[in-house]
Amino acid sequence: MNLTPQQVARKIAAAASDKKARDILLLNMENLSPLTDYFIIASADNVTLVKAVADNIEEKLAEEGILPSHTEGYAEGRWILMDYGDCVAHIFLEEDRDFYNLEQLWADAPSESFAEEENE
């Protein structure tokens, strides 16, 4: 199955939502970054949940034959970055998300909140 970057971004967001990630945001980076088309940013309450969200994203996308080219931060579990080429997932511990504030850093990017109801 050949998915568009937006479809992959939504699958990542849905997988994060399945594991109770919060404040899921899709940033359209197409006109801002030559490296990726979408950032998917999500928060979790604790390190265990951050890892569970990342695990579920990896599992659900693998079912579609989509594997990350690179994953970073899993051992610490405070900010896990998963690079899927056209889409990069950022799963944060809430306080780390507040500190790094990628939404503000990339404020020029069109953004869209993801709600589980959209996925049903």
Please describe what this structure looks like.
- The chain is 38% helix and 27% strand.
- It has helices at residues 5-18, 47-63, 94-100, 102-105, 116-119; strands at 22-28, 38-44, 70-72, 79-83, 87-93, 111-113.
- The protein has a six-stranded mixed β-sheet.
- α1 (5-18) crosses α2 (47-63).
- The radius of gyration is 13 Å and the shape is globular.
- The two termini are 20 Å apart.
- Report the helical percentage: 25-40%
Give the averaged pLDDT, no decimals: 94
N- to C-terminal distance: 20 Å
Shape: globular
Q: Helix and strand layout, with pairings?
A:
Blueprint: H1 5-18, E1 22-28, E2 38-44, H2 47-63, E3 70-72, E4 79-83, E5 87-93, H3 94-100, H4 102-105, E6 111-113, H5 116-119
Parallel strand pairs: 2-5
Antiparallel strand pairs: 1-2, 1-6, 3-4, 4-5
Give a quick set of tags describing it.
alpha+beta, 5 helices
Brief summary:
Helices cover 38% and strands 27% of the residues.
